[in-house]
Amino acid sequence: MSDIITFNTETQAFGQPIFKCSGYGLGAMVAKMQEPKVLEIGCDIGDTTQFLLDSNPHLTLTGVDPYVNYVDWNGNNLNEREVVYERFTKRMSGYKNRFALIREYSDDAAERLLDNFFDVIFIDGLHEYDQLTKDCANYYSKLKEGGVFAGHDYNAIPGVRQAADEFAAKVGKTIQITESDVWYWIK
Q1: Which element (helix H / strand E) includes 178?
Q2: In the chain, where the domains are located
Q3: Which CATH architecture fits 24-186?
């Protein structure tokens, strides 16, 4: 009888699927960076925020999320956003010197951020064609040359795919896909 137990560590842990946050595909990239500055548009409950912060102890992250009630791309009413915000801020309290939140709509927050400042920009906010088109236009200048421009739900939401494809073509880039339906390219 063998004492060796074999299981797929990517998809299974003692019979339970392993949870992968929306930004999971960026973990290996940011882990290798030296003191990366990351911008996350759309923090929600903080799964990706915490995952990225835990992926590199020298990473600093700025989040943008207004935490207001809204109807998402799929027609779901996302209410009680104030409660989500309170839980999120409590969850992030251990990252005081490495995390800052701008509690504004992404259209408004863009004006407050410096150009050529971030090493990674991850867009996971309002998953609609018009908004992703605006976020790409508003934030691409905020990314350093050689930085990672990325977002979520490329294959899951047609409007996201269309907006990402159009912006990539506009800036002469080819989209790559990594785990958890993350799209990205290097500037």
Answers
A1: strand 176-178
A2: 24-186
A3: 3-Layer(aba) Sandwich (3.40)
Angle at 111 between CA 147 and CA 126, to 5 degrees: 70
Per the DSSP assignment, residues forming a β-bridge with 29 are none
> Average pLDDT per run of 10 along the chain, which is 187 residues long?
46 61 93 97 96 97 95 84 95 95 98 97 96 98 98 96 98 96 97
CB proximity list for 130: less than 8 A, separation 6 or greater: 163
pTM score = 0.89
124 close to 46: Cβ distance less than 8 angstroms? no
Ramachandran angles phi, psi of 50, nearest 5° = -65, -40
Query: What are 70's two structure tokens?
Result: 């809204």
